[in-house]
């Protein structure tokens, strides 16, 4: 299996461990990722609400590059990047006016886009292309006894809803069940917003949202929370001390990218999965996985 790969901006900064662990996990699965040439930020910011058409052009530049680079589907790891690129695809497909305007902008850099490149979330690729049965067969260390709380966040399947139920997503549940984990399928906040970038503008509100999510996972007995978004991971892990201070709690819940925990199940080492970059230690999770 071979896919074009869009890492996204966070993969070079706060979400570097996501990119590192993705590459390590996919190598264990025999899936080849070919990084997109000269990719740029997808534009997943509030800029979309200010100059929407310009934002489509920014996102579409990546799609135009992917179209020229190869016939493979474009695999995306960040929820926000996936939503932005998939949304751009949909608007270009459904609106001739948007398509014309976007190609007008791309023409300034000698590019064009026909709107046909498939944008795939990495979990879509894993569950529907690699397949649940094949994933289970590739496990070398089953996650037996590990209580995993998959945190989907608000953009995993919304607003696109292309590969999972938009309101009640279950693909990460199925994925980690195949890896042998004890998956917590229902807890408060499973697919609610973590506060996102509001942490930079309205911290009190964002901390409350994170508190509700951490409380839900804690009450459900989670050993670890797994995420598919760099911003979600950073808010739930990096801001745990501030949540504890604000709400008088003592959360110490490991928060990992789902690729890190899955990578362990497929035989990658903690170092190869960048577990040393986590803020809340994952040592007890690693130690609890049967040899």
Could you write a compact summary of the structure shown?
The protein has 291 residues and is of the alpha/beta class. 45% of the residues lie in helices and 10% in strands.
Task: Reconstruct the topology from this structure.
Elements: E1 2-6, H1 16-29, E2 32-35, H2 52-69, E3 74-76, H3 79-94, H4 96-107, E4 119-121, H5 122-137, E5 147-151, H6 171-178, E6 182-183, H7 203-219, E7 224-227, H8 230-238, H9 240-247, E8 255-257, H10 258-265, H11 283-288
Parallel strand pairs: 1-2, 1-3, 3-4, 5-6, 5-7, 7-8
Helix pairs in contact: 1-10, 2-3, 2-4, 3-4, 5-6, 7-9
Secondary structural class: alpha/beta
Low-confidence runs: none
CATH architecture of the largest domain: 3-Layer(aba) Sandwich
* CA-CA gap between termini: 28 Å
Specify Rg, calculated over alpha carbons: 19 Å
Task: Record the strand order, biggest sheet.
Answer: 2-1-3-4
CATH fold descriptor of the largest domain: Rossmann fold
| Arithmetic mean pLDDT | 94
Strand content: 5-15%
Number of spatially distinct domains:
2
**How many beta-strand runs?**
8
Shape: globular
Estimated helix fraction:
40-55%
* The CATH top-level class label of the largest domain: Alpha Beta
N-to-C series of helices and strands: EHEHEHHEHEHEHEHHEHH
Number of helices: 11
């Amino acid at each position: 299996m071979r896919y074009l790969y869009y890492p996204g901006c966070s993969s070079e900064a706060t979400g570097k461990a996501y990119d590192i662990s993705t590459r390590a996990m996919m190598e264990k699965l025999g899936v080849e990722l070919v990084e997109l040439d000269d990719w740029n930020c997808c534009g997943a910011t509030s800029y979309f609400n200010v100059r929407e058409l310009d934002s489509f052009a920014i996102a579409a530049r990546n799609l135009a590059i992917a179209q020229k680079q190869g016939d493979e589907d474009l695999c995306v790891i960040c929820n926000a990047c996936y939503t932005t690129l998939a949304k751009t695809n949909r608007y270009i497909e459904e609106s001739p006016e948007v398509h014309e305007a976007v190609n007008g902008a791309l023409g300034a850099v000698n590019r064009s886009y026909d709107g046909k490149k498939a944008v795939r979330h990495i979990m879509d690729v894993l569950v529907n292309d690699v397949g649940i049965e094949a994933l289970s067969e590739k496990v070398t260390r089953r996650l037996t006894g590990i209580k995993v709380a998959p945190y989907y966040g608000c953009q995993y399947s919304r607003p696109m809803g292309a590969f999972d139920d938009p309101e009640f997503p279950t693909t990460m549940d199925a994925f980690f069940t195949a890896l042998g984990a004890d998956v917590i399928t229902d807890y408060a906040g499973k697919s609610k917003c973590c506060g996102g970038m509001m942490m930079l503008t309205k911290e009190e509100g964002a901390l409350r949202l994170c508190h509700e999510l951490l409380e839900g996972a804690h009450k459900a007995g989670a050993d670890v929370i797994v995420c598919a978004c760099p911003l979600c991971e950073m808010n739930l892990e990096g801001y745990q001390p501030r949540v504890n201070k604000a709400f008088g709690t003592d959360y110490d819940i490991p928060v990992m990218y789902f690729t890190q925990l899955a990578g362990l199940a497929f035989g990658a080492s903690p170092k190869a999965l960048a577990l040393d970059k986590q803020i809340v230690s994952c040592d007890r999770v690693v130690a609890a996985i049967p040899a």
